[in-house]
Amino acid sequence: MTSLIHSVAEALSPLASPFLSLVTAVVLIPAARQARSTRIALARLFIPVVLFMLAYHGLLFLPLAARWLKALESPVWVAILLVVLPAMHLPRNGDWRWFRLVPACFVALLAWGIWQGSRSVPPEAPRVIGILVRPGWLIAGVASVLVLIQPFLSLNLFRRAVHITALCVLAAGGFMLRQDYTDFRDMRARRTVRRDVMNLSETSPVMGRDGRLAYLPSAPCRFSPDGGYIQGCNMELSQRILQLNYRKIAGHDVAELGALEAVLAAFLSFTILSFLVARWCCGWLCPLSTMGDGLDWLRHRLGVTPIRAGPATHAAMLGSGGTLAGIGLAMSALYHHLDATGRAFGVRIPVFPFCKMCPSQQICPMINAGPAGYPPLPGTEWAFGFFRYGCLIVLALYVLCFAAARRLWCRFCPMGMISGLFNRGGSFMLRKDAKRCNGCGMCAEACPMNIGKVRDEMQESNVSTYDCVLCLRCVAVCPRDGCLALEHEGHEVTRSHFGTGT
């Protein structure tokens, strides 16, 4: 049975390509929506997909093309193509009822995979704490569960469900989720050796075993113990790009060319994903924002009124975050100048300087390994104490920004800055029908990013902004039916409905 599933997976490997998801979302689905009948719509979808798959398998016979295409494959794209995109674009009628069979099959496959994983544990082995299942089955299965429960939840409740799920998979996945018993055993063996995470020693993420990289436009920390199903954030990816030795690449060094291939494939995949979802990951998936929302909830329960920062504060946060990112990236470029003691020009610099100060690397290891997993602070020998004090200051800033001011941190976060570039011109658009707006201002009050454009704009229908994290709280609270809506490639995904929060 397992060999049969493996053969089917190889035949369907083009579904894991980001190019197919991009073409489907931007070209095929809009063309299918314009069809006069369901039969024509299906033909406009399936015929190009089949042709793409045939061409894909043909290119795999070329060694160079095969290497690049395989480096781009990720189970994330299977879930997006077969579960997420149809759920957003199919009308909630008879077609939707038939579509539910697809996520139901993925949920069944996930259950079967978990059962198979439990059976693989030898009777004499220590008790396995967690779930043993392949990454692709888990990602598609979890996405399918969320799609199936979405019609029964309000928009706010659905966002919370996604928050909790993403936190478990991205932050705690390194310990709770492993591919099989061998992977779990290896992970436990690694944990018997104390690793100083703040020294940024390489870890062994679940998806690292097949050599592929997967990056989301959010902050799942790459350096949590044993990683997770997603290998890092876009800032880590930016540092990797700067650490490549381009002189060796020009000299056709095999090892460096392999590193270039992996990094460029990850960067291309990340760019396509950012185009398709913009800054949605910040509002729904990012573990840091989820934990920050917990601080926001606590402040609300204590009755403390949040500080509403003004434009000057917003600009200062943006400039400070950009400056910190610039310093970290500049230091990353010194990677090839480090000596055996980790020093460049007499100053000790970590391999991934930005990660040294990121609060995600302080918080996520504790989620993965408990309080004992808290990484020790870097000593003052690291750039004369710059990283030690910077780490404490940035962590305190993170707590303060969520505890006092509702997502002020998201204006400082360089990862969000990169994703925000796709808020206008990408696939998602926040649309407003100004004729329906009564100027009540509830959208501005609900917005955690303190954005006033949605309330004030009365001419342009596209009210997407660079800072918007697409949390859709404005859509949930809008008292005017159809005044606000989220669109994906021109198709309305959800809209405001008075009194329902959906």
Structure description:
It is a single chain. The protein is mainly alpha-helical. It has a domain at 428-495: Alpha-Beta Plaits (2-Layer Sandwich). It is 56% helix and 5% strand. It has 24 helices and seven strands. The strands form three sheets. It has a three-stranded antiparallel sheet with strand order 5-6-7. Strand 6 and strand 7 (491-495) form a beta hairpin. The radius of gyration is 23 Å and the shape is globular. The two termini are 42 Å apart. 41% of the residues are buried. Mean pLDDT is 85; it is low at 195-202.
Considering the chains and any ligands shown, give keywords for the structure.
502 residues, Alpha-Beta Plaits, mainly alpha, 56% helix, three-stranded antiparallel β-sheet
